[in-house]
User: Fold these one by one.
Assistant:
Number 1:
Amino acid sequence: MSTRIAGIVSRRRRSQKKSHSTRLNRPKRLKMSDSGLHSSIMIPAAKPIIEEEEIDAVVEVLKSGMLAEGKVARKFESEFRDYVGTKFATVTSNGTTALSTALEALEIQPGDEVITTPFTFIASANTIAMIGAIPVFVDIEPDTYNIDPNLVEKAITEKTKAIMPVHIFGMPADMPRILEIADKHDLFVIEDACQAHGAEISGRMAGSMGHVSAFSFYATKNLMTAEGGMITTDNEELYDKALEIKNHGRGKQGGYTHYRIGYNNRMMDIVAAIGRVQLRRLPAVVEGRRKNASKYDKFLEEIEELTPQAERKGFKSAYHVYGPRLESANISRDDLVERLREFNIGSRTVYALPCHLQETYRRIHEWRWSKVVRFPDYSSMNFPISESVGRTHLEIPVQPGVTDENVEYIQKTIKKILSQT
Ligand SMILES: Cc1ncc(COP(=O)(O)O)c(C=O)c1O
């Protein structure tokens, strides 16, 4: 076994051992059978909505014989563009390729710095590092979990080219302040709206405020196509570049003339067909999530131990995730998640390890771009708020399939578990 593989194995073993010993020390736990609480099936955190309409739409494309990106994708793009309120939109194979295509369209170069948050899905940071640019992490606000604009300005250097705010859990980042800072320092803003379909700030949709934005349609998302993505922008030049980059450097006319090195980041029409149906459903999905979230918010007013993610005035979350923080409780976050799961409540933690604590960034010197680009030593960095939210947040099912009875059951269960610790 190589030393590196041996190291990974022993690290895994250590963490398995740790969870085993926590198990042994646990107090006697409340069981579904003796609690008076019951749910016969797991209430999942995420559940894709697939109905006859989605199936029919896919079958229609299959029968047409035109399966790859084409007419259906064009329709999906124009409908999505109208929904978000931008001039242009183009489909991609997923949210990661939407972000990476957008970064390349902005001509971010190896060694350029892009400011982003460490409290996000790793793709936000990885798409920056993928092209040899440097992710510069800036800590988050403790209440919204979004990048803290007060810290963004301090992180700007002469190498900074762009800011990538992420609307985490569907809660819009403070775009007005971020855009102001970007404007002052002549920087691009790439909105990572991968979790924020349907989120708004004062009537402006997430994904319509930055120079360019990226959406993901991964299977758990508010609008899902299993895998899929979209780039939105008001800038025609960026749009044209994105079209080339995502399609092997072909011009708009297609064919076999190529103008730049590009990729195959296209979306199949089979997938776009699902997206069109899901887009029609999206307003109701967001409303359903918001309705459940507001019930939890109200409930948590009387639960001292749990604090919801803050939704500021004028900001409207799409509640991709409902993720309160557990603070000053007699039970650990991990134990609470585990107990909720024992009660068939699909709770989980999402970003327990913020990006800078992931092995990817701790060992950035192994990344091939490190031969030509000097990345910072992420392993010596601390982002205390991201780390604290990472340690304390938990996801509670908020998706629209969660019924009023489910919400009531979840609330009662939380109350009971917390009162018995
Ligand atoms: C914030 C964020 N950025 C980027 C991505 C990447 O999207 P995808 O998984 O579709 O590649 C995701 C997906 O979960 C995400 O949540």
Number 2:
Amino acid sequence: MATDVHGPVSPKTADSASTAAVRVAGLTRSFGGRAVIDGLELTVRPGEFVALLGRSGCGKSTLLRVLAGLDREIEGEVSVPRRSAVAFQAPRLMPWKKVWRNVLLGLPGRPEREVAERALGEVGLSHRTDAWPKTLSGGEAQRASLARALVREPDLLLLDEPFGALDALTRIKAQRLVAELWRRRGCAVLLVTHDVEEALLLADRVLVMDEGVIAYETAIDLPRPRDIASPRFAALRARLLDRLGVEGPADDSLADGPAGGGLADAA
Ligand SMILES: Nc1ncnc2c1ncn2[C@@H]1O[C@H](COP(=O)(O)OP(=O)(O)OP(=O)(O)O)[C@@H](O)[C@H]1O
Ligand SMILES: [Mg+2]
């Protein structure tokens, strides 16, 4: 389990890409003279599942956009696999294209419908292949968005609060789906979430972003599937909530709030 985010950085990004899925060194991103990301260091191993927590506005989405190659106005070094894919909180489906065409959107060449069908099958959406996006439920739209990411066969899957808008039950199903896809595909995952329990259920390692850097990290060496009721789970949850600046006793009452152990009150 990788625990060192401050390891030595090779200046040759092509070389370092072979030993790490993500390698970020001295990353700075400013808006109007304010550094939102400020000398950030990060390494993610191939196949590693990393969750990223942090207060609202601390720069998580900014970091993900940089890793996804959507923002290049940066200082520092960023190395990611050639095949990366991103899914955002809002599914961002084109309303005038059927689901399967949405899944293939932006893929190079002229991919066959079967490629979309396979990915939709993986997320349990085969029956919605020909549907229009506006007829999908929230959970279905989220799964379509996931299929669109999977179709790229990514070595790095970037997920920005993909379950944020889902009801509790759909959210649990979506979490299980991501866990299973990750196991099957073996890609590295960087999941941004506000939900401490979600991070602890899914990740090999949890990071906390603060003041523009990775301010804290901890390896989650609990066996899978994880038992939310276990004392070790509770201890890790308490420690993370503490790091996130959530006030009060670190007991179960914290996890029973509306955010399910999340950061709504801390943000
Ligand atoms: N294009 C932009 N122009 C100006 N400021 C920006 C821009 N994008 C982000 N910011 C600012 O950078 C900071 C970090 O934003 P970011 O979206 O990365 O936060 P976040 O950690 O993802 O928050 P949340 O948890 O609420 O999604 C915020 O203060 C935001 O206003
Ligand atoms: Mg965000």
Number 3:
Amino acid sequence: MGILRNKKGLIFGALDERSLAWHVAKRCQEEGAQLVLSNVESAIKLGDIRRLAEENDMPLLACDVTNTTDISQLLAKAQELLGGKIDFVLHAVAQSVNLRRHLSYENLNYEYFKRTIDISAISLHKILKTAMETDAIAEGGSVVTLSFIASERYMHGYNDMADAKALLESIVRQMGAVYGEKRGVRINAVSQSPTQTKAGGVWKEMDHFYEYTEDLSPLGNASADDCADVCVALFSDLMKKVTMQTIYNDGGYGRTMLTESVIERFRESTGKK
Ligand SMILES: NC(=O)c1ccc[n+]([C@@H]2O[C@H](COP(=O)([O-])OP(=O)(O)OC[C@H]3O[C@@H](n4cnc5c(N)ncnc54)[C@H](O)[C@@H]3O)[C@@H](O)[C@H]2O)c1
């Protein structure tokens, strides 16, 4: 039973219980999908993904998403394990050493910058290109990547990851058109509220920002479980004409200038009525 029954999915990026991909994987399984998990070798060694795989009977395969040989081996093996073409893919992958080392935007290290872009954005292109060449994704399949609103608005401290997200959303549109015409494959980005995860925690301002967006979002921040629900909907046949979009799962934050909660915070801090 479930809206993903008979569907086969490939999930990149679950590291530990806080990971957005972890929540997505569990929700997809609840909805009846059969899954293969993947992450880079070091994350498999250091993270908890092996536990997710073993406890839920999800095969786990290593793949560095910057490496096209890894990707093509992964896609072949995943189809073998799933017993057919892949119906949906979650790309939940990002990393910035510039961000981790708190280098300011004007002083970022260019080697790290290239790596940020490669891991966090070009990897989606590599996965899609390889999948297209080998026809690994079923006709009408669905691919979702996770983005953040700093792709389009300046956000202090988010550094080169903002550039990566802007490119990522552009790849969603461009490859969405190409893959859509070729094989009817849908490609969308979910622009998620700040969420307390390993990658999220690398950003120095995360704790303050999380509280700020909670106050500035009419519906409050979207949780990792909320993100999983949106991904499940996008993977399902209920959204089969939705493609090339950035979908905001952010409680309305991106459309809001001021809320009563923010005014209340100012009243408290200034003492003015
Ligand atoms: N946490 C947030 O606030 C937030 C908000 C919006 C969007 N996102 C995005 O969601 C996605 C998932 O991040 P998360 O917050 O769940 O954090 P996370 O740290 O749990 O996930 C990031 C994943 O990327 C993987 N990864 C890094 N380099 C890789 C490589 N070379 N090959 C394969 N995998 C690699 C990591 O091992 C990890 O599993 C990211 O794209 C992130 O930017 C996060």
Number 4:
Amino acid sequence: MNKKTLSRKMEIKKAFTTIDLFAGVGGMRLGFEQAGFKTLFANDFNQKCKNTYDLNFNEPKLYVEDLWKVNLKKIPSFDVLVGGFPCQAFSIAGNQKGFNDVRGNLFFRLAEILEAKTPKAFLLENVKNLKSHDECRTFMVIERTLKNLGYNTKHQILNSMEHGDTPQNRERIFIAGFLDKDRADAFDFPEKIPLTKSFRELVAEKADSKYYYNDKPLYERIKKDIQSEHTVYQWRRKYVRANKKGVVPTLTANMGRGGHNVPLIKNSIGVRKLTPRECFLLQGFPKNFRLPKDISDSELYHQAGNSVTVPVIKRIAENIDSVLRGKKINPQLTISALAYAPRF
Ligand SMILES: C[S@@+](CC[C@H](N)C(=O)[O-])C[C@H]1O[C@@H](n2cnc3c(N)ncnc32)[C@H](O)[C@@H]1O
């Protein structure tokens, strides 16, 4: 093989680079790195996230700073911006103020970074109702802003139990954007795949006694409603809700704060809440993902609920990688193009 062909081959294999914004504990980074991307910069303003993040990733470590204050010169050139920007401002659970809420405005910081750095592509993640918020005006502004920056976007709601083979009913909206229109046209979000994993495979038979309700006052109120070992339950302030789909309900950022909403399970020992470790597994984090010992359970629940389902991210990242390499052809485009093609 001559030198030129060899260097082209190496070039083809070269990893695309990312920056990990609103990085949390690095769920997006993990999915992208599993798909072959290389991370060049990571930012979040939460110091506790850094404990978990830095325990699991080598360089670059998490740079803790308010994104508004990050000097853009600190961010190197990169190929793909990755960011699950804060969702409270757009969430049904939040106050629905959208762009009037400063947290909503962080989207415009992302826009500034896209404008300054012009990466080839980006992937943004948010709560499902971002699309319908404020009679769809919020989403229209987001789409228009991205378009004005020269990006061609596609968005889709993906569910962890349908798109990530992960037994959690978690719907999130993803927005992928590409500077190059052909790449955007060629890009598809991953198809649904069968759910092969049961939540029971990811929960341990035994857990520390502090997670059990057996001797706690709430037990008397919940025990008659929690009968099946194959169902996940949630205590909803006044009643127990059983998850009819046989999976774990959406793990949320406020789970574990005040003891509410951490999903409950029953096994041979009794009724207990999921442990933080199990919540991470139910977000598709690998077993060897390390959880720091010096932060509270409630913080770990918060980190798990705030994160993403890693296998979903990996599958999207693989599709982004393919189109950036010019590999993938959108099957639907091909079919419709063929429908109009002259027949001989
Ligand atoms: C929805 S979470 C994203 C979590 C992440 N995708 C993960 O896998 O863990 C949003 C994150 O944005 C961070 N954040 C919020 N406002 C910020 C700001 N002004 N500057 C930097 N980070 C911020 C929060 O600390 C939180 O970790």
